[in-house]
Amino acid sequence: MQRVAIAGYGLTKFRKSNDSLYTLACESARDLFQNAKNLSQQDVETVLVSTCDNEQYTSSIISEMLGLRPKISHRIENMCNSGGNAIISAYSFIASGLCDVALVIGVEKADSPAARLEWDISRGSFKHPAHWAAMFAKSHMNAYGTTEEQMAMVSVKNHDNALMNPKAYFQNKITLDDVLYSKPVVEPVKLYDCSAPCDGAASLLLVSEERAREFGDQPVWITGIGQRTVSASFSKVSDLTRMESTALAARDAYARAKIEPDMVDVAEVHDAFTICEILAYEDLGFARKGEGGKFAEESQFGIDGKVAVNARGGLIGTGHPIGATGIAQAVEIVAQLRNEAERRQVKDCKIGLTHNLSAAATSTTIVTMGV
Questions:
Q1: Which of 140, 159, 270, 320 is catalytic?
Q2: Which residue, 8, 14, 34, is CA-closest to 90?
Q3: Catalytic site includes residue 131
Q4: Total-model pTM
Q5: What digits encode the pLDDT tens for the residues 45-103?
Q6: What are the two backbone dihedrals, phi and then psi, of residue 5, each rounded to the nearest 5 degrees?
Q7: Does residue 146 have a pLDDT over 90?
Q8: What is the CATH number of domain 122-196+221-370?
Q9: CA–CA separation, 45 vs 71, rounded Å?
Q10: Rg (CA), the chain
């Protein structure tokens, strides 16, 4: 199989607006075309659109609006994990030789139907994702002594990072007390422990090794991929102190990339809730089992030698336009590895990782990248 690179990216400001799904998608794609070297509409062979919106035929409609006539045009939906799935699908098309140039667009409106888990009858009347976040949090607290203060530190860090990201939805500094005394959602989860839905879109240009240098001087290579679905319903989640699909997907991605967790310099993890980031520290191998809360404390105070997590602000600081999130995570890693992240730039980073999950981590996609 041929190697696959990310050669360009585009991003909208994350916001709430009256803009249509198509306006948002085209805005991020135009940003990509403006920034990618020598890219023309005729170069694009594949268009993949990641969204959970009820609109139909979205990929073909967006292709026409952008003046594209791709050989392959698909819409991909896997709830919050849609973006990660779209990246790996584009990677597979190119690695297998079916195409050389793929445009991946993630787009969502704030009122996405994926915001509630209506299909999962095992959850009874507890359909909001905050209910499963609370169960993870209570289980980890009981097993390992994780505290609400440690969870709050994740939110403070990510809101601070979002202040350095002009595309982020939230631009307000918060304190530990702001989080701890914010409105209760489902004990112990509070308002500032949660990400917020918003409008937004993100785009990536994936290309074959043969054509990578045509579209820019700094290709970022996809070095490892891992995906795992352990169930759909919450009834199959047996251990509430870990995200099983994350641990399994990460193992596969690291093996494919031939790296170890301590080699990752910068990571975008799926902090739909603060407890998710703490669990991710452990399940991605950044912290020992049960020490995710301690890792959050160390990250809060900038302890040297730790992987930089959610430098753009994560979902909590940047916002969570569901179909766009996995793509936006990858945009950030590419920007970091190309030394284009401006005020939030992580020094000397060479290896990055994205972690994108769905529905109480019943599925996870991991992508590792390098320069």
A1: 320
A2: 8
A3: no
A4: 0.95
A5: 999 999 999 999 999 999 999 999 999 999 999 999 999 999 999 999 999 999 999 99
A6: -120, 155
A7: yes
A8: 3.40.47.10
A9: 5
A10: 19
